[in-house]
Amino acid sequence: MANVLLMPKLGLTMEKGTIIEWYIGEGDSFEQGDIIYSVETEKLTNDVEATTSGEILEILVNEGETVEVKTPVAKLVGYEEGDAEIKAAAEEEKKEKEETKPKAPAKKKKSSSGKVMAAPKTRKFAADNDIDLNDVAAFAGKDTISASDIEEYLEKGETAPAEKKGSSSMRKIIGERLTESWKAPHIYLKKEANADALINLKETFKARDNNVSLNDIISFITARAIKSYKKINSIEKNSGEFEVAENINLGLAVAVEDGLLVPVVEQADTLSLEELAVKSKDLISRTKENKLSPDEMQGGTFTITNLGMFGIDEFTAILNPPQSAILAVGTIKEKLYLNSDNKVNSKKVVNLTLGVDHRAIDGATAAKFVQILADYIENPYLCF
């Protein structure tokens, strides 16, 4: 087998990947567990670790370039020129790059006295802060770098973290998805719901030392509402052709640096509230830590986005193709009203805004779902 590094297949749905950064250059050696390069696919950036030790002979795919999975991205020392299959793939990829644009020079990692040595965690720390280990080595006057050296380098103000590589790629993908989404004729329906029972339910779980959030309860209720009115669970199969999805896979919009990711809770309607809460917290946590796999963002049939924690009363959200509906949840706030005795009372309310693709869902269907959802929010115990 030829001694090469291949573009990894990081998920069942991954077909291509973009090299965001090489952490080592040609002529550099690495050990098993070292982070060699980072790959971006569908808005996710993943660090690729070495499974064995080796040394880079030639980088075949430069930063910013996109290739299909299992494409050779670098030759290692000991590359067997006689391996026709791998060699042909590498040469074909190289030829294609040369035809489209000049090959950028491969990144070289140098310090004043030689190769910079750092543990994998230290390299990860540097990459997360967009720090070049060569700069830290020059600052520290040594070639073996630790995390404390990087911290000192940052504290001394020698550099300010620049925009992370990959963020521009994420914005590009988001732009493409938004353009695709706006091709759909959106309609929006808004409704205010009494949230007193919702808050009481959360307090009941809290009293039992069960850390269930309002987001978890809303997700649980929404999944039950979709189950009782599945017309809203439509997805686009082909251009302009829709079908009601059998499974209710709930997308949870999560804000990350310079973008938005939507991990998916599969078959959310089959989970208990406690199970959904555990699953959601795990997905959201790993989303913020950039530890999701691409597959965990696939297959969603309905998305919930909540800006209530930012004090937003209500907002309209953009559809997440190929889904046909998205629910925007605003903040819970106090509202005064006159009761039947003309006395002033107060209640907690939440604003719900449902956005739908009018090609798949008409106004009456959307209104029926909003009514069911509001009833469940005002009477959450009906969902158990």
UniProtKB/TrEMBL annotation:
Domain Lipoyl-binding per the UniProt entry, residue ranges: 2-77
Gene3D superfamilies according to UniProt: 2.40.50.100, Chloramphenicol acetyltransferase-like domain, E3-binding domain
InterPro entries in UniProt: 2-oxoacid_DH_actylTfrase, Biotin_lipoyl, CAT-like_dom_sf, E2/Pdx1, E3-bd_dom_sf, Single_hybrid_motif
Domain of life: Bacteria
Region of interest (Disordered), ranges: 90-119
UniProt record, GO biological process: pyruvate decarboxylation to acetyl-CoA
Pfam assignment, any one: Biotin_lipoyl
Keyword Hydrolase appears in the UniProt entry: no
GO cellular component, one term: pyruvate dehydrogenase complex
GO molecular function per UniProt: acyltransferase activity
EC number from the UniProt entry: 2.3.1.-
Broad class of enzyme this protein falls into: transferase
Keywords recorded for this protein, A-Z: Acyltransferase, Lipoyl, Pyruvate, Transferase
Biased composition (Basic and acidic residues): 90-102
Listed CDD domains: lipoyl_domain
Cofactors required: (R)-lipoate
Similarity annotation: Belongs to the 2-oxoacid dehydrogenase family.
Listed PANTHER family: DIHYDROLIPOAMIDE ACETYL/SUCCINYL-TRANSFERASE-RELATED, DIHYDROLIPOYLLYSINE-RESIDUE ACETYLTRANSFERASE COMPONENT OF PYRUVATE DEHYDROGENASE COMPLEX, MITOCHONDRIAL-RELATED
Name this polypeptide is given: Dihydrolipoamide acetyltransferase component of pyruvate dehydrogenase complex
Naturally occurring in which organism (per UniProt): Halanaerobium congolense
